[in-house]
Amino acid sequence: MSLSEQVEFCAQPAAAVKKGHEYSFPHMMRLDWDVLLQVMDSLGYGDFSRMSRTCQTLLRRAPRKLLSRAAYNAISIQSFPHFVSFCLFMLGGRHDGFQYLTNLVLRPWNEGCDDPEFGPLLATLLARATELEHLTLDDCEILELDRRVCRALASMPKLASLQVGGVIDRSFKGFKSLRVPALTEVKASFYYDDDVVDALPVFKPFRNTLRSLDLNIVNLCKTRGVRYPNVHTLSISMCLDVRPSLLAKAFPALQCLYFHTTLAELQTDDDIDEERWDNIDDQEPPSPRWSSLRAFHGSILDLYALGLRCTVDYVGAAGPALSSAVDERRLSAALADVRPSSLCLQLRVPEFNLSSLSECLAPAKDRLTELQLGLEFKGDMHEYPTHEINDMLKSLSAYNLRVLEVNVTWEASPERRTRATIRRVLFDEGSDTPWLGPADEEEDPRPAELDLEAMAYRAMKHSESLRFISISDRRVRSAVFEVRDTGCPESVNSKTLFQLSGASASWKEFCSSPIFTA
Fold this sequence. Notes:
It comes from Phanerochaete sordida. With 518 residues, this protein is an alpha/beta fold.
């Protein structure tokens, strides 16, 4: 039986749900219908489907209950049999479930894709899914199966988010024919080959409606004249080549940039320095200044190589951790470029010298008011890191910091990690050999616990401008303090610390800081 014949067959009334079938479950049916619906709604997809087929009442309510879950957890089709089953359910004619289908994911699969009826059936399914708001096509070749597939996408008036994978040259024609009036977000991953494509012309049909663009494996240094006037968030990962002046022209309203290149994997230190100077020269007048940019998320290496000639409010460089004198030099140069007011850094100690941190931050001294530091200590070398941290806090006293957050973690030595791996392999929970102790103790040795409040007091003592101080030990023990006046300005201790809870207005003010919201 062909796919279309199966769908037509299932459009006929099913005998299993006709009158009288509910008496097969007399005890369950004594419950009120609202109770049964709550029970059914709490089940997984398989049990949900089986329970819905026990009577007509539950079957009529099933589509709304089942498909409404897609608003939060997408309906994900991960195999050809799953696709056929979904088509039978949606196109069977016993309900109008398409009005509740808002989030659909089509994963790639090999089996069944060569069926001549697969393309037309997919086009039929998408043509009726007019309420879709989020659609994911992990294999962009689906667009080429039938010309009606692109036509169906163009007829979705509410489609706001489109995610596509495996975009190749043949896919461009399909995108050019699309006209999706409500599309505001596109995520696209391109194939990696010798001629990586420039992604900007590909999504030109959506340039006036897009607000967010996420691109993976791209080259952004070729095309000129393509503008996305309303995009405020841009994410670029595995970018092989880029020119800042082109980005500034293409995204004149951009506020938030997530950026990752392949520099660390493909180039030497000299090549990276040369890339930086090329980008700086590229931004000389008459190239426009990127005045709209407010936040940068990426590594210090990428920010250094990009050489931006503009001021931003936030730099989030959570990883990889800075761990050398070269990183110290790049950090100082990058901060001189963008001079942020909020900064997040990850530092590996002792490779990164904490005593030099104040000097590295000096280029942003006049604007820096919020600082988040992740400190990675080696467990074998720094059993008591309090001294190093206190010296660092003292060195930051010259800065007008308003918010300071310090997260302290320990990294086990390679020898400890090797022993922990052997223990897990030889003495796992499924073996008959008795367990000799938790692997966590080997992987993350416990040094002496930090006195969080004492450290916060030292930070307050060294800095007159601090309003909030957050200290975290191993990201398990944490405390947030607010600096308050004691009301006795002539007293030696004119300020004190007040530990915040999640219900206070001060806590909400602390959480609204750009280091958490940018």
